[in-house]
Amino acid sequence: MPGKPAPIKKSPAKKAAEKAPEPAPQPEPAPVEAPPAEAAPVGPAPAEAAPAPEVEAAPAAPAEDTPAAEGSAPADATEEGADSTTPTEASAPAAEDGAAAPVADAPAADAPADAAPAEAAAVEEPPKAPTPPPPAVPTSAPLDVSVDDVNDSSLTIKWNAPETIGDSGLDGYTIEYCKDGTKDWVVAQEELTPANSYCIKNLTAGDLLHVRVVAVNPGGRSEPGTLAGAVPIREIGERPKIRIPRALRTRIVKQVGEQINLVIPFLGKPNPVVSWLKDGQPVDTKRVSIRNSDRDSIMFVRTAERADSGVYEITVKVDSFEDKATITLQIVERPGNPASVKLVDTWGFNAALEWTPPKDNGNTEITGYTVQKADRKTGEWFSVLEHYHRLTATVSDLIMGNSYIFRVFAENQVGISEMSTVTKEVATIQKTGIVYMPPEYPEHDFSEAPKFTTPLNDRAATVGYTTKLLCSVRGSPKPKIEWLKNRVIIGDDPKFRKISNQGICSLEIRKPCTFDGGVYTCIAKNAQGEAAVSCKLEVKQVILPGAEKDK
Fold first, then answer.
1. Most confident of 212-216, 231-235, 430-434, 491-495
2. I need a labelling partner for 477 at 20 to 30 A (CA). Which of 202, 279, 329, 490 fits?
């Protein structure tokens, strides 16, 4: 077994490597110098093993243990069946440090004691590898790729970020282009760009280019976002711009039969291409006449109809640049008559009606209703309600003994409906004797327990100066007022004057002295209950400056 002594010699070095701090393994150049050291230990290395006990008595510093720890790597390889010459190569770095070399060779005498730990260490299971993260996924394609600017030598495009980016993030975008009619895509930039726009330079005037944008992340390239069509590389004299008149920026309301003539001015050089859409579809040239010039576009309808209502979109395009504007056109007319009118009830001189809105509102909202009545004897119609907003109404002041029919018109912003809906039922006002019975109203109980609306406030008075305490109370019947000083009822003492007038209660204290201070309480009582308020009165003695000198 020639491989056995090697693990016994290197097991202490392996322990030293495990105890050494982590920064120690930094000097990697040490093994590079090992070849010169291999020749030196051939003769003297066994002889230097004698002073090993002295080295073990004084452990080396962590920096000195580092070469030994590095030298133990070949020893570990020997344990797994490496060549027997490996221990000599492993001891060479340790011999260069002088003190570390004996440490590596000294345990030769203790081989029986250290063999068991070395074999036990080899049996330990390696730690389990961490679960690898899920693979990165490419993003979705960039959105809304469009032309931002173009001239005879460059093209600037812009786009929006992909809808789905994912947890792996976004590294940037790459822009590619190719000439029309070819499939040779050229990358426009050397590095990925993080911005959402890019200018492709050094282009040839007159070329037609297709451009696409690809998002890149750790998962790879996304699907490309491509321009809608080829872009001609040439100088644009003036970008297209639609100037909608202020009167056309809101909803345009026209009546049926009116003439429509809309003039839409715009800018753009060279001559722009103008197109019209109605509700997303090309306009019907049989109904709508379109005349375009280099400055404006005119939409003309000789006789408006309800079917002409909708959202019209004008597009002015110069090469890859375009401008759009929308115009909302609403053709209205008078509404139809209410769907039904019903006589709900008749009582006294009144009749209750109920109706439903018309099926045709004239392409605009219903603003009200007009209710009319007619006496069956004369047949003449009279308006009783106009611009009425509800769907139910009560017609009053009908004449006793007469019979009435009713009709309802609907109205909108154009006008009143041409036809009306008449009730099928007839409201007959019966001739009955009327006896007036005046209503009986129960007598209101105004009785109320006393309640102070203004409480007493603490006061400070001066000896010899009359003071007054005030409060206000309400109650029904009129409450009886009592005054107390320090919870003792104040009788007919001439020093105190009690007044109660229209709910205002006052207590006048004439020329009070210091003994008149204390807590005063006002109590109001009646049959419904009682209430009380209190305050504190402090009577102060005035001390003149001359009196202090006399003392």
1. 212-216
2. 490
Residues 109 and 183 in one domain: no
Q: Are strands 310-318 and 321-332 parallel, antiparallel or unpaired?
A: antiparallel
| Stated length of the chain | 551
Provide DSSP, 118-139: HHHHHHSPPPPPPPPPPPP---
The neighbour count for residue 229, using CB atoms within 10 Å, is: 12
Q: Are residues 215 and 246 in the same domain?
A: no
Mean pLDDT score across all residues of the chain: 78
Nearest-CA neighbor of 159 among 222, 239, 241?
A: 222
Which of 305, 332, 359 is the C-terminal boundary of a domain? Answer: 332
306 & 224 share domain: no
The Cβ of residue 6 has, within 10 Å, a number of other Cβ atoms equal to: 23
9 with 43, same domain: the answer is: yes
CB 105 within 8 A of CB 72: no
Domain shared by 167 and 210, yes or no: yes
pLDDT at 75 over 50: no
54 with 107, same domain: the answer is: yes
Asked if 231 and 145 count as a contact pair (C-beta separation under 8 A), the reply is no
- For residue 87, report the phi and psi dihedrals to the nearest 5 degrees: -60, -35
**The amino acid at 389:** H
Query: What are residue 181's phi and psi, to 5 degrees?
Result: 95, -5
CATH number at residue 380: 2.60.40.10
Place of tokens 């040839």: 204
Q: In the prediction, which pLDDT does 181 show? A: 86
Same domain, 30 and 76: yes
- 382 assigned to some structural domain: yes
Q: What's the CA gap between 520 and 485, in Å, rounded?
A: 5
pLDDT digits (tens, 9 = 90+) for 124-182: 667 776 777 777 788 899 998 988 888 888 889 999 999 988 777 888 999 999 988 88
| pLDDT tens per residue across span 295-339 | 899 999 999 999 999 999 999 988 878 899 999 999 999 999 999
Helix axes 111-123 and 5-19, enclosed angle (nearest 10): 70
Structural domain harbouring 391: 340-428
CB 317, CB 236: distance < 8 Å? no
Backbone angles phi, psi at 77, to 5 degrees: -65, -35
Residue where a domain stops, chosen among 428, 462, 485: 428
* pTM score, whole prediction: 0.44
The answer to whether residue 205 scores a pLDDT higher than 80 is yes
Q: What is the pLDDT of residue 546?
A: 64
- Could you please report the per-residue DSSP string of 303-370? S--GGG-EEEEEEEEETTEEEEEEEEEEEE------SEEEEEEEETTEEEEEEE--S--TTS-EEEEE
Q: Any residues with CB less than 8 A from the CB of 104 and at least 6 apart, and which?
A: 9, 10, 12, 13, 68, 71, 90, 91, 94
Does any domain span residue 47?
yes
**434 found inside a domain:** no
